[in-house]
Amino acid sequence: MSREKRTMIAELLRSGEVNTDVVVKGWVRTKRGNKNVAFLALNDGSTINNIQIVVDVASFDEELLKRITTGACLCVRGRLVESAGAGQRVEVQAREIELYGTADPETYPLQKKGHTLEFLREIAHLRPRTNTFGAVLRIRHAMAFAIHKYFNDRGFYYLHTPIITASDAEGAGAMFQVTTLDLKNLPRTEDGRVDYAQDFFGRSTNLTVSGQLEGELGALSLGQIYTFGPTFRAENSNTPRHLAEFWMIEPEMAFYELEDDMDLAEDFLKYLIRYALDNCMEDLEFLNKMYDDELIERLRMVVSEDFVRLNYTEGIEILKNSGQKFEFPVDWGCDLQSEHERYLVEKHFKRPVILINYPKDIKAFYMKQNDDGKTVRAMDVLFPKIGEIIGGSEREADYEKLDRRIKELGMSMDTLWWYMDTRRFGSAPHSGFGLGFERLLLFVTGMANIRDVIPFPRTPKNAEF
Ligand code: 4AD
Ligand code: MG
What we know:
Elements: H1 9-15, E1 20-33, E2 37-43, E3 51-56, H2 62-67, E4 73-82, E5 90-101, H3 117-122, H4 131-153, E6 157-158, E7 164-165, E8 177-178, E9 205-207, H5 212-222, E10 224-232, E11 245-254, H6 258-279, H7 281-290, H8 295-304, E12 308-311, H9 312-320, H10 338-349, E13 353-359, E14 375-383, E15 387-394, H11 399-408, H12 417-424, E16 430-436, H13 437-445
Parallel strand pairs: 3-5, 6-10, 12-13
Antiparallel strand pairs: 1-2, 1-4, 2-3, 4-5, 7-9, 8-9, 10-11, 11-16, 13-14, 14-15, 15-16
Helix pairs in contact: 4-6, 4-7, 4-13, 6-8
This protein binds 4-amino-1,4-dioxobutan-2-aminium adenosine-5'-monophosphate (4AD) and magnesium ion (MG).
């Protein structure tokens, strides 16, 4: 019985033929009615919209109907008919109802009333059953699909870079260690240090902070690649924009200079936002109504405006002359905080900004050095509401310069010899960038906290589910 084919609610609402028999399966959102007729709003995740199930109370077992409450899962067989009610084209006149699973009203946490996002984070295993998280997760899927489509259509290859690595791509030092050593009984070397030679990989390893370094190997052989995978950062930053586990998209292109890199980043972001506007409108309208009434307008604005391209040095001048009181003071050489980034984007230019040529001391070792000896060919794409959404650069392709920089920073060559080989053998100008997938989703959904755009957030002191 239960193996018969159901029609998804999205399809029924869109194109279901009236006066045909249908099978729908889903979870009850609400139940209302009187002693003659009951109305069930059923949702199966295929769309934000529910289908209305009309139940003629006299034709059903009273006990069965009593057990159908918010959250229960049903299979309904019946007839698709034109709906008399407002707001829906069709509804289902129930002939048979099979109750797959009940949801005790005393303990099922998702009752009709709107819950706070904070509360929903505590029940992240159930929150996909809400309108909000249904919308966010459908948009998340659509963006992942669009990313692959964008690159595939343009001749990029999807390269799988390792999750476990021995190198620290960003040189930032905030990594999660991976080990099978017994923490209660660590093997020691003669001079008392942990003996990683006895660890699983025979050396110290960690979860990757970025697939870029291996991505560069791909670009310098396949021409243009992208990675799209989980990355991990053990920074103890409890902000609405940081996760300890997040997904990153990192394209890397041979023969691209910084200008080409900027062109790609701008075109890519506009493509993704346009894709959301073209394919996710019902979910966007819901989020626009419930959370951020400027969302859709902001998405349209970004798609239609040219991004500003500006030197870091000029950006600092604008901030210093702004007369604005910032929490963190600005001066040449400082790393920009999101308050600074957002001032440039939201107040000063009123559109996205690509800031380039940052001081070398606040950027990673691999960035191409400018002739001034002070700056590197870095670019950060700054977005309204978000601040930094993309970080990237042209890469230093010159062996000597790169070697000098690595030594200057006191980094170990043991874990980078293979990376240096790309500069020894057939080195080429190349560039790339990293887009934080959840930062993109913050922008596209209008949600304010990054914990609400990933199914199961990983943040300091939280790894539930
Ligand atoms: O600027 P980041 O650190 O750059 C890199 O990792 C380079 N290897 C990218 C490259 O050139 N291939 O990170 C890139 C982006 C940021 O702009 C931000 O959107 C996101 O990743 N990001 C985070 N997102 C969520 N939580 C965090 N803790 C993040 N850290 C960075
Ligand atoms: Mg960055």
